[in-house]
Amino acid sequence: MKKLSLALLAFASLVPAHAAMLTSNGSLSASDPTYNRVNEALAHSGIGTNVYYDVFYFHTTGTGSVRMEITTGTFDSFITLYQGSFNAASPTTNDVEADDDDGVGSLSKIIRSLNGGNNYVAIVTSFNNGVTGNYTLQVEGAVAAGTQTSGVPEPSTALLAIPALAAICLRGRK
User: Fold this and answer.
1) Would 103 disulfide with which of 18, 107, 137, 144, CB 3.0-4.6 Å?
2) What is the pLDDT of residues 29-58, one digit of tens each?
3) How far is CA 54 from the centre of its chain?
4) Nearest 5 degrees, angle CA 72-CA 101-CA 18?
5) Structural domains for the chain
């Protein structure tokens, strides 16, 4: 039983971070807040000075490549990635990367290696001021949770498996 316990624990420690895909259907509307977004150089934009935006929070479960992409949209989209927190009054604070058209057509896409165990914020907005419309945001990679309403990530079920296996092994020793 001891060899089985050690084997299970060794296997659990080798399991890579859980790759997940988070999908959110959203809409920029005239009731959304506005801000002066950054440009792709991460400086204040001279074009998107009063754009509607939506906020998406997610948590990384492991270090690795994460893809954030507007896969469908009815407008010229723009994504900005922030580490930790986002403050619309100070949009250049904590910004990591921004993209206008690296996706299909005029849709946005960011692919970036992110550090595990961190909270990130993706801001979905438009390239031009006053634009509204529907979109689909996908976030894929070593991510645990995503939400529009809370910055508190949900625990990853893959990470919960390790203590569960340890408990089973310890119980079998009695």
Assistant:
1) 107
2) 999 999 999 999 999 999 999 999 999 999
3) 13
4) 60
5) 1-17+156-174 (no CATH), 19-154 (2.60.120.380)
Number of Cβ atoms within 10 Å of the Cβ of 95? 19
CA angle 146–147–151, rounded 5-degree value? 95
State if pTM tops 0.85. Answer: no
What distances in angstroms separate CA 85 from CA 29, 64, 174, one per listed residue?
23, 20, 47
